[in-house]
Each structure stands twice: as C-alpha cells, then as structure tokens.
Amino acid sequence: MMKTLVLTICFTIGLSHSEPQSHHPGLRHDLDTDEIIAQAGYSPETHVVTTEDGYMLKLHRIPGDGPVVFCQHGLEDSSSTWVLAGPDHGGVAFRLAEQGYDVWLGNYRGNSYSRGHISLNADTDNEYWQFTWDEMAKYDLPAELNYVLGKTGKEKIYYIGHSMGTTTYMVMNSLDQSWADKVELAVLLAPIAYVEHMASPLKYLTPFLGMIDWIVEHLGIGEFLPSNWLMDFIASFACGDNKPLEFVCENIVFLLCGYDQEQMNATMMSTVASHIPAGTSSYTIIHYAQEIKSGNFEGMDWGDDERNMQHHGSTTPPTYNLRDVNTKIALFWGDNDWLAQPADLLKIFSGLPNIVENYQIPWEGWNHFDFLYAIDIDVYQNPHLLEVLQSHPIE
Predict the structure, then answer these.
(1) Paired strand residues for 161
(2) CB of 366 closer than 8 Å to CB of 263
C-alpha cells in the first residue's frame, strides 16, 4: 500500500548566487531538492557533512549575500519540503531566498538524501537504523550547524525547524546552552516536545510498547516501512467514514500527521507523495509513542540497561528540560495539528524561558503540513515569518 521511495540523487554544485528566472518548476514533478532550486533560477549547492558517529548527511543550499537561515525538516521528511511548493506557491526556502538570505536545508540520517555512512550500509545493515531523534539532536544537528558556521564564516545564524526539526533543536540547546551564542533566533513551526495528548493514530501503538521487537516487526526491521496490517490498522482510525482524499489513506505520513483538506493544493499532492515518506528508523516513531505514554520530554528507552548505556551513557533515558533552552524562540502553531495539541503546547509555552514570539496561525483548521504546503501559506504564515526574522537582526 505504501511504496518505497527510491530517489536518484543528482548534484548540482553552484559557485555563486543567481537571480531567479521565469522558468519555475510546476506543482507536478518528481525532482530532487537541487533540481527544484535550479529550475527556479538559482545556483544550488550540495554539501556533505559526516557526524561524529559516522553518518553522512547532505545539505542543500540556495546561496545568498544576507544572513544565514538554516532550515531543518520534520518527521519522515527531507530538505525538499522547503521548496516543493515552488517560488510561485509559497515555498518557504524561496521566500527566504527572495529576501537575500543565505538558505541552507538540512537532511537527517536515514532519509533519502542522508543514507550514507562511513562503514554501514543502510540497505543491508540493521545496525545503521539503531537511532532516534536523540541521535539527530546529539550528532546530526550540531554537525550540520557547525559546518554551516564554518563554511560561511558567520558568527550567528537563524534557525527554522518544522515538527521533529523543532524537537531536535530544543533537545540540542537543552544539552548545550552555547547555541544561544550561535543562533540569533530559532523559529519553531509546529513545535513538538511533549506529546501526551497527541491526536495522531500513533497513540494506538502505546499498549504494545512493552513488545518493542514485535512493534518493529510491523513498523519495519530497522527502516520504517509499515506492514500492510499496520497501515490498515492506522487507516481505520485516521480515515474511518470521513472519506478524505484517497492519497491521505495511502500515505503513512498523512495518516500519522493529519491533513487540512481546505488548505490542500490538490495539484501538488502527487508531488508531495513522491517525496514523503522520505525515510527514518522505526525507533524514531517508537520514541514519540513512548512519550505519549510517559507524558515526558525524554530520551528513548531502549528496553534494557545495556542498550540504554550504549545510547545515553546511563541505564535510564535522560529527561530534557525546556528551562535549559536559552535561545530566543519564535513559536508558530495551528489549532488542528495532530502532533502538537493545545494541552502539550501549553507545556512548551510555560517551559521555554525565552519566547519572543508566540503566533497562532489565524486559520481555523491549520494542520501539521500547512506550515509547508498550504494554499494560503503566503497569507497566513510567510509574511509574518519574514517580519519576525527582520525584527531580530543579526548584528
């Protein structure tokens, strides 16, 4: 029911920033991130970053002369999410590039652009997939941001995260407060820390969390590739008798994250479906499910002391304290986000000590993916996003 994405990675290394031309990609396509950027008239760059634990991550760049903005995708997503809508329909990366920002787009381990490793094969080695967003926050995001800081020579940058890209920033900064000296402002779209009240069908996996091996068998051994049984199980909760668009009930990401039919651009949905799910580990999904059950913002419990020691250096998973996140934070959230429910958002509002902007998107029904693909993204989100960045200039 869910096809595995096999993407051919094409690299276009650009040496300079170019002005956008009139030839823009249409909404129906199966282009890679750099191809989408190039068709919009820019000169894309592709960079490779190797993490401390050996994962090879690809970064995409739209060069600009202004401040650096680093964008990090969410769950089961990739760098393409920031450009899929194109320059004509509110692609966030293009709106930033039009303002002269130097735009960098990250890719977390395990997605279609970041399956490389110095010694492990993602296609054959189950060991490759022994990670969650703990490792993304501990290794991937710091490696990406430090690379960009070094490559550009900038002392400070802006950060924009969506979904899991917000989770990992909060974890990273809670563990290392020096990031407030390097990131002028972190904009968190659809912020996720606590998920006890999550409306996603993911919550129905929580009774089985004592049988991690059994869950992994149905989520995919290592890589997240749900069995037909699990897809049908989740679809029975997400779709029911509501009869949403067919692709919603056939795409695991929409089944888990929800949808806002009024803001869906039907023309580009086949394009979105060709890019997500982009790939992650089954344990990344289980990690969020564990948080639903515990009600805490904490590391993955690997089920035994040995594996917890391997991943955390302790027999119990760490608890992440939002009070330790000292970067200036701008929150953008919607009222219909299955993964970021009001009761959980309240914990973020009260926990983060340095919120400088708390913006509810003024559209009833704004959902998890509306921050990226909504028909009215240039009405309700992007203008204010640019205003917020401009109101916190990098000296």
Answers:
(1) 72, 188
(2) yes
In tens, the pLDDT along 97-132 reads 999 999 999 999 999 999 999 999 999 999 999 999
The set of catalytic residues is 163, 368
388, pLDDT greater than 90: yes
pLDDT in tens, 227-261: 666 667 666 766 665 555 565 666 777 777 777 78
218 HSE (CA, 13 A, CB side): 15
Question: Which tokens go with 162?
Answer: 């969506």
Integer Cα distance of 365 and 292 in angstroms: 23
- How far apart, in Å, are the Cα atoms of 25 and each of 28, 46, 385? 8, 19, 24
One-letter amino acid of 280 = T
**Cα dihedral 154→155→156→159 (10° resolution):** 60
| Residue whose C-alpha is closest to residue 199's, from 335, 346, 380 | 335
Q: Three-state DSSP class for 187?
A: strand
pTM metric for this prediction: 0.89
Taking the C-alpha atoms of residue 318 and residue 321, their distance in angstroms, rounded to an integer, is 9
Tell me what the pLDDT averaged over the chain comes to: 87
Those residues with Cβ within 8 angstroms of residue 206's Cβ, 6 or more apart along the chain or in another chain? 289, 292, 293
Residue 281 has φ and ψ, to the nearest 5°, of: -90, 155
